[in-house]
Amino acid sequence: MRKLKFEYSMELKFSSPVSSHYFALRCVPGDSLRQKVRLTECRVSPADYTSALEDGFGNLKLSGCCQAPHDVFGYSVAGTAGTKGMIVQKCPLHPMYRYPSKYTRFEPEVVRFAEKIREECGRESAGTVLEKAVCAMHYLHKYFEYVSGMTDIGTTAAGALKLGKGVCQDYAHIMIAVMRYLGIPARYVNGLMIGEGATHAWVEVYTDGGWYGLDPTNDLHIDEYYISLAHGRDYGDCIVDRGIFLGNTSQEQKIYVNVEEIKDGRDSCVNGTAGG
Hints:
Elements: E1 2-25, E2 35-45, E3 49-54, E4 60-66, E5 70-83, E6 89-90, H1 108-123, H2 129-143, E7 145-146, H3 157-163, E8 165-166, H4 168-181, E9 186-193, E10 200-207, E11 210-215, E12 220-221, E13 226-232, E14 241-246, E15 251-263, E16 266-268
Parallel strand pairs: 7-8
Antiparallel strand pairs: 1-4, 1-5, 1-14, 1-15, 2-5, 3-4, 6-11, 9-10, 9-13, 10-11, 11-12, 15-16
């Protein structure tokens, strides 16, 4: 087990004041079989009130509102996490993770790509669930290109495959769609990772009675340098910051993420970066 220190903050600036701002945030990591979290800061501002509850997927969700006019909104979360990597998190399987969802429908582009991966798994003699999932991850990483700005938060797996380019959200959606097409339950995870200046997305597949994590963007198994925030069928279930408000305004968002490994009782920055 490793010990990580994390900081995660978001600031949203409005071009003109908004009011009656209701929000739902999945920005706080919770405890699981692979991580134990101790918070040192959890602040949302401005907010008339906040309440914490567990959503239908088991994620920690902060809900609240700010009725008064405001032109800045943000949150800051910090703490430490003891993490384990490359483990199966044992738990019962909900059948929803077997079937297509909004972002992972079995459209023609997905079917064609999945059949190519099925052929590749045959050539590689990948027989177990994990072997097939790793084979799919390697194939996706090889034939899909990481390019920011080509897709957006509404892009589906099929849409990203048409472009052949995308970001971590697209890698995750494509792999989930392929896994489910091949009969392997899979789910979407977002969180924090050393070396990333923003949130990151990856995949968990169901094998041996639990969930095992893979990062197709980086072609890696999920190790101790990842901290999970939320999971669900796809991005739509894991949106970090969702809200509605009254006002005619544009928005500018800044995000800061830093993750450091703590060694020998001291904070040691392995590869933490800031971004916005």
